[in-house]
Amino acid sequence: MRASDRAYAALRDEIIEWKLPPGTVLAEVEQSERLGVSRTPLREALARLGADGLTAAHAGRGVVVTDISLDHLAELFELREALEGKAAALAAERGESAVFAALRAEFEDASRLLTDTDPGRHAYYDLVSRLDAAVDDAAANAYLVQALKNLRVHLVRVRRLSLDDPARLLAAATEHATIAAAIAERNPALAVAATTVHLHQSLRHLQATQREEKAL
Amino acid sequence: MRASDRAYAALRDEIIEWKLPPGTVLAEVEQSERLGVSRTPLREALARLGADGLTAAHAGRGVVVTDISLDHLAELFELREALEGKAAALAAERGESAVFAALRAEFEDASRLLTDTDPGRHAYYDLVSRLDAAVDDAAANAYLVQALKNLRVHLVRVRRLSLDDPARLLAAATEHATIAAAIAERNPALAVAATTVHLHQSLRHLQATQREEKAL
DNA sequence: GGCAAGGGCTTTGTATACAGAAACCTCCAC
DNA sequence: GTGGAGGTTTCTGTATACAAAGCCCTTGCC
After folding, report:
1. How many domains does chain A have?
2. Are residues A120 and A170 in the same domain?
3. Domain identity same for B126 and B53
4. Is A43's CB less than 7 Å from nucleic acid strand C?
5. Same structural domain for residues B49 and B153?
């Protein structure tokens, strides 16, 4: 693996996991020494982070980790609604019914996963990403998938803001089942609606959690 | 201006204007000598082009200019529909009515511009970008605007595929006027519908033109 | 005491030299 | 004649040295 890839992956993970919180300045020499690579590949890594929107080049002062606040959260979910709604609609038009019917069944069984502890939650997250991947695959649109990929980096970042509570995950599982069912039924309008509902609920929950944490 | 910025802008323009057609290999030394910059800033430029999706790093053989065919056109417009539809809806919710009412009037007067020759067409294109900018501004969503910006690079590239014929531009002006009117009326659903119609017609026209050129 | 200008210092931006890897061509064997 | 293996060549990937630009601190003047 290339040194620039390693540096990019390391910095990206650290930003996503809030080990490098917003506002952190990433000086080139400092980071290159820390990560054990030269400045050249590190610069390439920083450029990619900037393209992802995770950092911004504050001219002269080095690149800084971008902020992500409550306001950004709403904006992020507006974009997410546009992209995931379209992806769900396209998947409903083009996808294999059997694939999504199977995923629907898994989500309806998810209550079993979520009564357990950590490994169960991990299995649930895995199920969610399998649905995402299935939608991406069925949508069959490279540009849309790329845009979603860019978006998801930021979504993972905000997810780490608050621990998911089991009650919300259970509700989300039902919403995901509805989305999968709509796609399996080849009903694009329903798929869009189900996606909109799910994202609305997710955003509400996140914002409520955020306000709680702020109050502490 | 930085050398890497110059290299990026130069290569990007050349790709967009089809001076570097799809499949062209961009060797680092060759391009750095041609553009009069060192390999380091050139590599940064190539990385940015890759992030834009204009080039793909064919491992070992250097980066090549990505292909853009009729199939890609449909995919591109699917993404465009999702993003511009959402942007129009948000603009209808949040925008200043007066701004879009004025733009509507300009589009309704556009027949005057389009009866003239080249300078008139240039003025029309300028009007279109002013509408885009107004929508971006009114949507007030940095993530959405960024996604649109990424998309537009590819759109400019396909526009160069075929010369716009005056009849289509005239029809497009009417469609744009309808979009602006919907936003001015603060009617998000109508704005989405008008955008969908416009994009559908544009795609149909482009595909028809493409088939003609293929037949020649 | 406050403001501005200048110098030092840290920072990024660029160039070049070197190392490693992959592709292609050639030559040999079958 | 064809296939494979080895060598050569050219490419990308990385490191480091140098240049330039911006910021901060200090100092002098008002």
Report:
1. 2
2. yes
3. no
4. yes
5. no
Cα–Cα distance list, B8 to A199, A203, B43, B49 (Å): 37, 38, 9, 7
Query: Given a cut of 80, is residue B174 above it in pLDDT?
Result: yes
Same domain, A51 and A133: no
Residues A128 and A23 in one domain: no
Residues 6 or more apart in contact with residue B83 via CB below 8 angstroms: A82, A83, A147, B144, B147, B148, B151
Measure B38 CA to nearest chain A CA, in Å: 13
d(CA A64, CA A55) in angstroms, rounded, equals 5
Residue B38 is encoded by which pair of tokens?
């060192």
For residue B205, the enclosing domain spans: 70-215
Question: Residues 6 or more apart from B139 whose CB is under 8 A from it?
Answer: B86, B87, B90, B91, B94, B95, B145
Query: Is the pLDDT at A166 greater than 90, yes or no?
Result: no
In this predicted structure, what is the pLDDT of residue A116?
Answer: 60
Mean pLDDT of A52-76: 88
Task: Report pLDDT for A140.
Answer: 96
Of B47, B65, B83, the residue that ends a domain is: B65
Kindly tell me if the per-residue pLDDT of B49 is higher than 80. Answer: yes
**Least CA distance to A150: which residue of chain B?**
B147
Shared domain check, A203 and A104: yes
Split at pLDDT 50, 70, 90, the class of B117 is low
Decide if B91 contacts B191 (C-beta within 8 A).
Answer: yes
Poorest-pLDDT segment among A201-210, B19-28, B125-134: A201-210
Q: What is residue A16's predicted lDDT score, i.e. its pLDDT? A: 94
Which residues is A26 bridged to in the sheet? A63
State the CATH number of the domain containing residue A53.
1.10.10.10
Domain end call among B49, B65, B81:
B65
The stretch A108-126 carries a mean pLDDT of 80
pLDDT of residue B92: 98
Q: B80 CA to C10 C1', in Å?
A: 45
Q: Please give the single-letter amino acid code of residue B77.
A: F
Tokens describing residue A125: 């997250």
Taking the Cβ of residue A144 and every Cβ of chain B, the question of whether any pair is shorter than 8 Å is answered with: yes
Q: What integer pLDDT is reported at residue B116 of this predicted model?
A: 61
Same domain, A159 and A137: yes
Question: Region B163-189: what's the mean pLDDT?
Answer: 93
CATH number of the CATH domain containing A208: 1.20.120
Q: Are residues A28 and A85 in the same domain?
A: no
Subunit contact A143:B78, Cβ cutoff 8 A: yes
- Partner-chain contact B48 A47, CB within 8 Å: yes
Nearest to B47 among A48, A83, A85 (CB): A48
